[in-house]
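Dear support,

We are seeing what looks like truncated structure output for some complexes. This example has two components. We would appreciate it if you could run it in full and send us the complete token output so we can diff it against ours.
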Amino acid sequence: MTVNGELQPAVNGHGEPSTPRCEVCVVGAGPAGLMLASNLVRLGIHTKIIDERPTATSLGRADGLQPKTLETLRMMRLGDNLVRLGTKVYDICMWASTPDGSLVRSGRELHYPAAAVDLLDPYILLCHQGMVEDMFIQDLRFRGVEVDRSTKFSSCSATSAGLSVECKVNGTEDDRELEKVLAADFAADYVVGCDGAHSQVRRMVPEAYAAGTPHDSLWGVLDGEVDTDFPDIWSKTVVHAAAHGSILVIPRERNKTRLYIEIKGGDSSFNSKTLGQEYVMQRASEILAPYRISWRSVEWFGRYQVAQRVANRFVDAATGRIFLAGDASHAHSPKAAQGMNTSMHDTWNLAWKMNLALRGLALPALLETYEAERKKIAHDLIDFDVEHASEIARGDAAALAKNFRKNTAFIAGVGVAYAHNVLNPPDGSLTPLGRCARPGSNPPPAKVMRYIDANPVDIQTDIPALGQFKVFLVVPDLSCEFLATLCSSLSAPTSLISRLTVAARRSYAAKPRTAGPEDDYFCPERYTSISDLFTFALITSTDKSSFEIAHLPPILASSPWTIYLDDAASLDTQGRSCIDKWLGGLSSSEAAIINVRPDGYVGSVRRVESTAAAGVEAAQWMDEYYGGFLQAPW
Amino acid sequence: MTVNGELQPAVNGHGEPSTPRCEVCVVGAGPAGLMLASNLVRLGIHTKIIDERPTATSLGRADGLQPKTLETLRMMRLGDNLVRLGTKVYDICMWASTPDGSLVRSGRELHYPAAAVDLLDPYILLCHQGMVEDMFIQDLRFRGVEVDRSTKFSSCSATSAGLSVECKVNGTEDDRELEKVLAADFAADYVVGCDGAHSQVRRMVPEAYAAGTPHDSLWGVLDGEVDTDFPDIWSKTVVHAAAHGSILVIPRERNKTRLYIEIKGGDSSFNSKTLGQEYVMQRASEILAPYRISWRSVEWFGRYQVAQRVANRFVDAATGRIFLAGDASHAHSPKAAQGMNTSMHDTWNLAWKMNLALRGLALPALLETYEAERKKIAHDLIDFDVEHASEIARGDAAALAKNFRKNTAFIAGVGVAYAHNVLNPPDGSLTPLGRCARPGSNPPPAKVMRYIDANPVDIQTDIPALGQFKVFLVVPDLSCEFLATLCSSLSAPTSLISRLTVAARRSYAAKPRTAGPEDDYFCPERYTSISDLFTFALITSTDKSSFEIAHLPPILASSPWTIYLDDAASLDTQGRSCIDKWLGGLSSSEAAIINVRPDGYVGSVRRVESTAAAGVEAAQWMDEYYGGFLQAPW
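Here is the complete output from our reference environment:
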């Protein structure tokens, strides 16, 4: 098993070849499945990704990337091209009808005002789902993995060695008349259903299906190039005409506009079959009157009824090997541009855990956190969405604005927070109020200066995602003794950190990460010089001129690209430094350790007096933390 | 002649086909030639680009892009990938030997401190010349133009219709043994020699060659991956060891380092032939001692002696059809990372002028500005470079720093300024001190909010380069009468602006710009809705809520993507708005017009009281300005 994505014949107990085998079978090549496959393949996991559709998504479906998603993609060193080509939505407008029949703008404000939420990218990026998929497909292709298309997952069942998976492979579209259907069986350690709302994988997970709560309003969605004198089509805009219903306007890339158009429930003379494109266009004209609208071209038309549901199970309890993610595990309204984002973050959460599990470096507790963490987020999303969707339909601008303000950080994605568990233990020290580096949460964006090359960098994305934990040692004053005793304790061969490092080094030597097309430029080896499992980083407010990297303890001196200065040049517009934003400030006699998970969420935080004794204790605390979910089997 | 880059048979007076013909023959496919060809082809000019080398530059040569170059590429919607992959140098370090033989760091500071120079990209971007060339080659390829390689320019001569060009085409490297040499003749309106220091085109321009001023020191250049304990290899660093000479360290992309190593003039026992790679490496070790240095790999080694010269002529006076640009017209030390940047800006300056000349929209005065403008810059560069190169060699840190500070804006490229001429007439109104929108200069970078979609944008790059003039109407208070009378005067069919617009529309209809690979996303048509020759833009500090784009005068209302708000959200870190930075502020009873040339340099500026009468006068002033170098022949 040395080639990613290519099924290798396994060998059974008798030394005879049996069915081909992969480590993870990803079912569905939408954003969730591709995010998973891309991460697994990057980390060196033998991955097969199948999709029943013969081609990638070219039209319609999802279109919005939230700020947190861009941050996540930056950790993967992806997404710059989307940012370059996509349309950025910075503001949100509200229009309502007046008694005399005209429309007036009742509100126009920033979508993500800095005062409400601190974001590196304070906008929604509109770029078609197909562009996102293509980005991942190219990334996989460079690493030698292609999506197996026209391949439909049929079933899977537990075996002594894992799972046996059955699929059917259709002929391509060109020879569809042949109705060539091939059965394809293979073995896998894990199967992940990223196969959408009608998931076939979900049928393999007993009790997973949850009944939805269908809303009574029906919506049409129209993508195209419009000709209109309505002034706000380049903002996200909600228009509510009392007599005719609501429209949500979403600006699109390539000079296109998406309209979500409500078809009032009261129109009982129509059933959903007859509510075609022409009808929906007419509705749009009525709602937007007295402004005129016509279409230069229509790219896609769809209809949907809002239904909110969350699967009862995200993982098969019996085997622990069958997982659900994305639309297979939750459904909701598309109008808050959450679907593609939440789905990708489901598998972003799962990928690194699965990697460590497959490498034998994780205790079972690690993979168990997936369901707990992502099911909570799905419920948080549905709770928000029920209100949001109905307020758009009601056209209640004030209620919509209030709901929006309450949920701004969540909508942006940075407000997503996991409950306490073994990965995110409660912070024993005094955590400041407001957003900070809090276990289970995203750390706030912060700028620091990289010592070695004086580059100003965004600390939350500077270290690329390589499946490793990022250990930020925050030591304002380097003249303390804390750093020396901490580093020497961590480096001791008996520490769990050291033993995990040895085990991880062996694992990655045997099954390395795959090289990316731009690794020559990004130099990932700079971040794994000490360990494949931990990148140690220093954040200090000590003046640059008073220390040299070479004089730091070895685990830092050997990682020169992760020495960061919390300096005056890096303050944000409100005068806050990284240490201020992450920890609410530290005195010169204090220090802190922030363990950041491979997915960029804060794991655990400890704030101490920067004494020699505290360094020894902090190293023990780290061993305890990592011992809760990792193991060094060798 | 409908296909770019493909030679079309012209027809002679007797209706018989004669030699093939292009409008511009670009000789040399380095950065200068490719910048020219890319711009000409984009603008719809039939361009042939030839190069005697069989392949593009893959190693060595230039590596640094200055901030102004990145700004220029942004106007072309290019360069993002270079920024993403290149190495950014933010600081500069100085080291000097001490009497006891050790080295000490004598200085470490930002290369482009904000207090010294206001830059959108305050760093040098290190990315290999081959990456820059490839970017242009891809851009040309999409537009149907390939570089004609292994094609050596022989000569050109004037004909009644333009120029007759002779070339020789070698076989490819693979069949070199055949010594296949084909003659290739064609006709061209213009030939531009971008063929380097040993330019063959220069021989066609009488009296162009200038004797150089060779410096007596010899330098070796080494690109490779180093293993060293010297701490500052990721900064631009000058090391001067009294006994052994100087090194200039330049960090490179792909974990590489470039070293410029001085070979002291006193080493008379060596001639330049024997000063090989091993010798230069040994020199580097001696200079850097007591730090150690060795090479993991060496990618390229070169040697050069500094020689400064500027060609006496940049254009053939007799025909006005043969031009020189880049290294063909000037030579200097490579150490300030100016060569590739200055060369590209030579042809950036030439391309739009040549386009308008070929379309018959320009008076001869326009193309005549090329030599005057770029020759001045070449002399400015040499004046700076003589000092800079000798100070690096002398290791005089204080003098180097002083020279550097004096020339910071020039080195960054934004300080480049053209003398007054027909394009850059003196500003009659009171120009503020310091950097501002000054005729012949780059406008300072400034942020504004785009009205239509609330995007914060960099105003100096927001309107893409499409060969058009950008007319910024700066009207703080929209309740004045100035804007209405100005726009109505400009729109009158008898105005030169209107007549030029009609002529340009015909010209571009007959010979359109070529479509780029990402035009669907960038929507260039948004910027030529009113005119192919002018993009009208408004900058106002009037509150967004108090006006609608539709209610502006038609030439602005029909250009909704260029209505900009000089608002509180767009202030820079020093609290300055665009109007502050460009004009030193305007009162609410004032207005200004800033005519920005197609290359982004300020052409002319007029500051007026915002009265109705002033609007009429300002339109006349604009007609006079543009009448100085443009014509409407139809």
